[in-house]
Amino acid sequence: RSQFRPHVSWIRNQIRYIKLCLKNERPWGGIRKLSKLKHLAQSNYVRSFINASKLECVELFEPINKSYLDLSKENIARGVSNEVLYNPAKGMHLTQQIIDANPNIKFTPLKGFTKTQLLEKIKNAKLYIDLGHHPGRDRLPREAVILGCCLISSRMGAAGNRHDLPIPEKYKFDHTNPNFVINTSAMIEAGLKRAHSIA
């Protein structure tokens, strides 16, 4: 999956684009050079981007892993661990601001776990945060929610619309807001106290 982040800076995007073209991972001349190819869209966000470029696509939404679906049906206690999970592979510059502002809260990166350990970790946690850019219908937020985790996200990419990330807007935070850290921290504290009453 591309790590191209169009929200960072225009100059940085252009440099990345040129590098990817030199590696033959992007077409010179932009997306319209791909007009003869068939395109698949994994989210409303991607479909809108492709359509805006005057191209057609077929929606193909990836399902949630059966392991998570099976576990979600079991009559088990969830949300017993008073910690906040996050994906260290994305949005870390924003997540680190929240971690630094909340030294009294345990933040756990979802890294280095086996599939079984990951299932157990998510099942037992109260809250999952994803403050990075969402290039599509990201897997981890959906898996966390289906296992009973409360979710707090950014508004970047696919998270910015109600189709791809259908959670109440008050649980989505704008990183450009001067009160981003204060507001996000307050919601995290509320989420840990109320456990599964927010979703």
SSE blueprint and pairings:
Blueprint (H helix, E strand, L loop, with lengths): L9 H13 L17 E2 L2 H9 L5 E2 L6 H8 L7 E6 L5 H10 L4 E4 L5 H10 E6 L8 H8 L3 E5 L17 E2 L6 H15 L5
Parallel strand pairs: 1-2, 3-4, 3-5, 5-6, 6-7
Describe this structure in a few short sentences.
By secondary structure, the protein is an alpha/beta fold. It is built from seven helices and seven strands. 37% of the residues lie in helices and 14% in strands.
Task: Describe the protein's architecture and organization.
The chain is α/β, with parallel strands linked by helices and 199 residues long. Helices cover 37% and strands 14% of the residues. A 5-stranded parallel beta sheet has the order 4-3-5-6-7. A two-stranded parallel ribbon has the order 1-2. α6 links the parallel β5 and β6 (150-154). It starts with 9 loop residues before the first helix and ends in a 5-residue tail after the last helix.
Strand order of the largest sheet: 4-3-5-6-7
Alpha plus pi helix count: 7
Termini distance?
A: 28 Å
Structural class: alpha/beta
Q: How large is the share of residues in beta strands? A: 5-15%
Report the helical percentage: 25-40%
Structure summary, number of beta strands: 7
Radius of gyration: 18 Å
Catalogue the unreliable spans.
none
Name the shape in a single word.
Answer: globular
Largest sheet: 5 strands, parallel
